[in-house]
């Protein structure tokens, strides 16, 4: 795991995050489903990846066309989401926008609930602005109380988690998101220094 951590870099970002604590039996089922799905081709994730890659390239050559395609893609995703109202509604209600420090192997964020070290979590992450979803099982590595001057709102703890199980397609989406955000952050720093 230490070598894996060195392969991925971290960024600060805003993401929709929801989680629920799970026991060892649920973790086993989640791991089995993740491994079973890793070998299959996820058409939806593949389409999203390809659309996002082409949109990024198109934004340079034809920004208006890229915006149009992006809006159509978002509308299509909205219609698809409405077809599965129950589960999507639960996701959207449960998500809270959090400032996170994230890499492809884990994340850290301020939280209102104290979590025990070693607790397993089923994480649902919504990337912004693409609104792509990532499901992962994570293990709490550390949960430290925040000082009074660090606490924001109801967030009184700082949680660090390692991703224990992530579908390979979701991990690829997360890596692409991090690389893209890193590039945007570097561009912004260059502009500010000019």
UniProtKB/TrEMBL annotation:
Any Pfam family hit: PilZ
Gene Ontology MF, one: cyclic-di-GMP binding
Domain (PilZ) ranges: 97-178
Protein name: PilZ domain-containing protein
